[in-house]
């Protein structure tokens, strides 16, 4: 596949032309993401890791530092994430409704079940993992960290989002996104998944049995707005063997937690701050 790094037709004809604004933005974001994933890094490491020419890397690092999106640690001769990003993170968490009370609910659920627990926020068909509680004894699903929202056909969160759509929209989303097999148990037949989604819509609970990751199963319960719109979901994952003889209890505990968290979202922060004081 040809890859032009967001270069315009004019740039392809004239390599000396300046990158488009779109190209500059993508490169700047690539630098921020690299430093976020790798920690403090010098310019040469950033350039090598992002495949951005070193002169361009130096220029973008300087501009990002000027905007306080990065900081230059002169004593260590490295660059790190800037304090302005913290403000963005705080605002995003506020938008997602991640109060300390909701985080406490997830933590208590994790301790009670002995499983990794998750909060996902749904916005239309899109969903994003907003909070995870896990431990060495009960680790999260490998890619399930803040922001994850891929492969809806193979995750309990994604199935809830699909179940909230009408059937024609379900078909459209699945046709456009595809249904790749992540494990031998991933449902890749459209009719089979559509049948399961009807049951999820009816029962308001979604399971995936080693469909996302071998040896691990996940269950998710939704919560809704007062008008019935899907707001989010509470989920737990663990080795499949951990569910043996515990399925009814796990479902009950998840539904109870989802009910409380849903009430917090519906009534707003002023209510639950008062309740938990």
From TrEMBL:
Please state every residue range assigned to the domain named IclR-ED: 84-267
InterPro entries recorded for this chain?
GAF-like_dom_sf (IPR029016), HTH_MetabolicPath_Reg (IPR050707), Tscrpt_reg_IclR_C (IPR014757), Tscrpt_reg_IclR_N (IPR005471), WH-like_DNA-bd_sf (IPR036388), WH_DNA-bd_sf (IPR036390)
Per the UniProt record, the lineage of the source organism begins with: Bacteria, Bacillati, Actinomycetota, Actinomycetes, Micrococcales
GO molecular function (one): DNA-binding transcription factor activity
**UniProt keyword annotations, A-Z:** DNA-binding, Transcription, Transcription regulation
GO biological process terms held by the UniProt record: negative regulation of DNA-templated transcription
| Record's protein name | IclR family transcriptional regulator
Instruction: Name the SUPFAM superfamilies on file.
Output: GAF domain-like, Winged helix' DNA-binding domain
């Amino acid at each position: 596949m040809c890859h032009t790094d967001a270069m315009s037709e004019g740039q392809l004809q004239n390599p000396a032309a300046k990158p488009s604004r779109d190209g500059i933005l993508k490169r700047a974001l690539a630098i921020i993401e690299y430093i976020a994933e790798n920690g403090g890094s010098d310019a040469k490491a950033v350039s090598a890791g992002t495949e951005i020419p070193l002169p361009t890397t130096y220029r973008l690092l300087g501009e990002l530092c000027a905007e306080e999106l990065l900081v230059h640690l002169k004593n260590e001769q490295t660059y790190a994430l800037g304090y302005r990003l913290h403000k963005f993170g705080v605002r995003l968490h506020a938008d997602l409704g991640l109060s300390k009370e909701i985080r406490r609910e997830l933590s208590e659920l994790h301790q009670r079940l002995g499983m990794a627990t998750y909060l996902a926020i749904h916005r239309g068909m899109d969903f994003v993992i907003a909070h995870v509680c896990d431990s060495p004894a009960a680790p999260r699903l490998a890619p399930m960290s803040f922001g994850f929202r891929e492969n809806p056909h193979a995750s309990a969160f994604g199935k809830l989002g699909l179940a909230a759509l009408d059937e024609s929209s379900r078909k459209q989303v699945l046709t456009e996104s595809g249904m790749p097999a992540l494990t031998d148990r991933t449902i890749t037949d459209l009719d089979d998944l559509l049948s399961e989604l009807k049951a999820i819509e009816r029962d308001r609970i979604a399971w995936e049995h080693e469909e996302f990751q071998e040896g691990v199963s996940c269950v998710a319960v939704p919560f809704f707005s007062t008008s019935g719109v899907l707001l989010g979901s509470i989920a737990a994952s663990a080795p499949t063997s951990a569910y043996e003889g515990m399925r009814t209890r796990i479902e009950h505990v998840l539904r109870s937690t989802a009910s409380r968290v849903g009430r917090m979202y519906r009534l707003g922060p002023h209510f639950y701050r008062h309740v938990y004081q």
